[in-house]
Each structure stands twice: as C-alpha cells, then as structure tokens.
Design brief:
Blueprint: H1 10-17, H2 23-31, E1 40-42, H3 45-49, H4 57-69, H5 80-89, H6 95-125, H7 129-155, H8 162-168, E2 171-173, H9 176-203, H10 216-236, H11 245-264, H12 268-273, H13 278-293, E3 299-301, H14 306-328, H15 330-352, E4 356-358
Parallel strand pairs: 1-2
Antiparallel strand pairs: 3-4
C-alpha cells in the first residue's frame, strides 16, 4: 500500500529548497533555522551526569569495546576512484538535480555536525565516566561523517566553514529525555535512510551518480551503534518508557517521520535518479525504523493507517503553500503563511490522534544492522 505520489515541477522545488551557487549560499543554508532544517541542541548537563547504566552493564561494556575497536578508523578516506568518478559523473547532473543533491549534502552535513557538537558539549560538561566515554566516541564518529561530506561539497567549491556554523547556528534547549528520544530516532532513521540507498545502488550501480554512496554501508553502521547507545540508556532507566512519557515518544516519532517526509518530497529528482519514488522510499525507511524501534519503544506508529498517510501528504502540500506565500511577500503573504501554519498544526494534531500499536519490549536489547 502506498500513498498518492506528489509531483512538483522545478519552480516548486526551488521555492522549498532555494538555490545554492556560491560558498556563501551554502554556508547561509547550513546556518538557516527552519522547521525542516537540522537543528543544534543543548541540554541539562547535570542531569546527563547523573545517568546510571548499571542495569545494562554487560551490554554497555560490550558496546564500549566495539567503539574502542573503531572498525571505521580507516573508512572515511577518498580513493583515486572517488576523484575519477566525481570528474566523470558530476558534469552529467542537470542544474535542477545538482541543486537537489547539494541540498541533500548540506542537510546531511548539518545533521552530522549537530550530533558532533552536542556529544562534544556533553562530554566537556560531565564527569560520569560511562557517559563521558560514550560521548567522546560518538563525537569522533560524527566529526568524521561531517568532514567527509564537506570534502564532497568542496568538489563544488562549496565547503562549509564548520567553525562559523558552530558559532552562528541557533541552539535549541531540549530536556535530556527529549534528547534521548529524538537522538535515538535520528540515528536509527539515519541508518534506515543510508542502508536503503546503499542496497538500492548495490543492485543498480548504474544509478550511483556520486561516489559518496559507496561509503554508506559501513557509515550507517556507525549511526546504528549510536542509536544502540541511547536504547541502552533508556532501557536502563525504564521510567523514560512509561506513563506520560509515552505521549512524548509518540510526538517525537511523528515529528521525525513528518520532517523527513516533507523534506524528501522536495528532492524528487534525487530519488528518481536512484530508482526510487520519494513516497515509496520514505515508507521503506519508516518500516525499517519502526522494526528497529521495537527494541526500546512500547508503542509503534501505524504507518499503514489511511489517516497517517493522508496527513503526511497534506503536510507536503501545506509546506509548498507556505513557501509560495513566503515568496509572494507582503500582507497577503503573511496571511497565507499564518493560514498554512495553522492548518499544518491541526494536520499534525490529527496525525497524533492516529491509534498506535502497543508491544512488549524484548528481553534482549541489542540489535544488529541486518537490513
């Protein structure tokens, strides 16, 4: 079952993602704070310092050994084939496709760097040896990911100044439990996105229009392990997974899914080039993510519910209408944006009321990236 495909012409896409022609444009896009753009976060470091992982000590220590083993220490190196493919493939991209790919790279870099900053700030502000060690390893991984993407942006002469990005990007304060829910979901859905792309291009190498995709399998295993870390933290503190917190879990699942769905539907050419249709791609990712999240969340969003699918489609339409109103400007533009924002709020509320599936948590917490 799939929802109705949404088709945009290039003018619609340009309204939603903008145009990047210079390094200044790329840096401005990374600094932007919108509903859809990745955010930078800060949190209550004292509360993080009090975390206790003793109930999952055996699994925790095994995971720390995996981090220490650092199986990707030599992975993020560009080889000669990478450079040759860039020279051969990049000139073949249409201007419209180039913009969508740049949007993908900048968004991905900002998301990876966001994790690097958050983990590094937690590390610096706490003394808890378990959490401090974890944050050191995860910041290391995310720094490599962001740096690797930035090298590809530099191929377009559009490298991001990461120091400037850290200084200029707005920061959002999240309570620690919101960090656990949102970051767990972000890491796991990041795995699902990357592995879905990797498997598709593994089957259809002729559709691999950039060499960076060859790195995605081992790369996304880093993301998977990061999610495992937050799964252990939440399972070690079971109060985070019951009572009123179930309402927050539902909110963050829906927010992460809706953000991804709307953002991905601004890149139809990108998915088409890889042999996907954006809607089908997103539901494949949702399904993998939902399967994974059963390790830690006692509830699951019903992604096959007709209302869920209708609301996702409606949110894309409202995002497009909001972008058109913004471009129109003036009083009518402001009114249009207010109307679409209100409609999006109520659409998300309708989405939130879709019944969820309940499930018992498995005795064994850890999972393997087998997708």
């Amino acid at each position: 079952m799939t929802s109705t495909a949404l088709n945009f012409d290039h003018d619609h896409v340009e309204m939603l993602i903008g145009t990047v022609e210079t390094a200044a444009d790329a840096n401005a896009k990374a600094v932007q704070s919108t509903v859809l753009s990745p955010r930078f976060y800060t949190t209550d470091f004292s509360a993080m310092d009090r975390l206790n992982v003793e109930p999952v000590r055996a699994e925790w220590d095994a995971m720390m050994q995996e981090y220490e083993g650092d199986n990707n220490h030599d992975h993020f190196q560009r080889d000669a084939q990478f450079a040759d493919e860039v020279k051969t493939l990049m000139p073949q991209l249409s201007p419209e496709m180039r913009q969508e790919f740049l949007d993908f790279l900048i968004s991905s870099l900002t998301s990876e760097f966001s994790g690097c900053i958050l983990y590094n700030e937690i590390r610096k502000h706490i003394d808890n040896p378990d959490i401090k060690k974890l944050m050191t390893y995860m910041a290391r991984d995310e720094s490599r990911h962001a740096g690797f993407i930035n090298q590809s942006l530099k191929d377009f002469d559009l490298g991001i100044d990461l120091g400037q990005l850290k200084r200029q990007k707005n920061y959002t304060f999240f309570k620690p439990k919101y960090i656990y829910y949102a970051t767990y979901l972000s890491e796991k859905i990041g795995y699902a996105r990357y592995i879905t792309i990797f498997r598709q291009l593994e089957k259809h190498p002729d559709k691999r229009f950039h060499p960076i995709f060859r790195w995605f399998e081992r790369w996304c295993n880093d993301e998977f392990r990061h999610g495992e870390s937050f799964a252990l933290i939440m399972r070690a503190n079971p109060h985070l997974l019951r009572g009123g917190n179930l309402l927050w879990i539902r909110f963050f699942i829906l927010a992460v899914y809706a953000t991804m769905y709307v953002r991905d539907h601004t890149r139809p050419l990108l998915h088409e080039a890889m042999g996907f249709e954006s809607t089908d791609y997103d539901y494949k990712v949702f399904r993998i993510t939902s399967d994974i999240c059963r390790q830690v969340f006692p509830i699951e969003v019903d992604i096959d519910h007709p209302t869920f699918r209708a609301c996702m489609t409606r949110l894309v339409e409202l995002s497009l209408a909001n972008a058109a109103a913004k471009q129109r400007g003036g009083v009518l533009g402001l009114i249009g944006r207010a109307v679409t924002a209100t409609q999006a709020f109520f659409t998300f509320g309708r989405l939130y009321l879709v019944p969820v599936k309940k499930q018992a948590l498995p005795a064994e917490i850890r999972m393997q990236p087998v997708w």
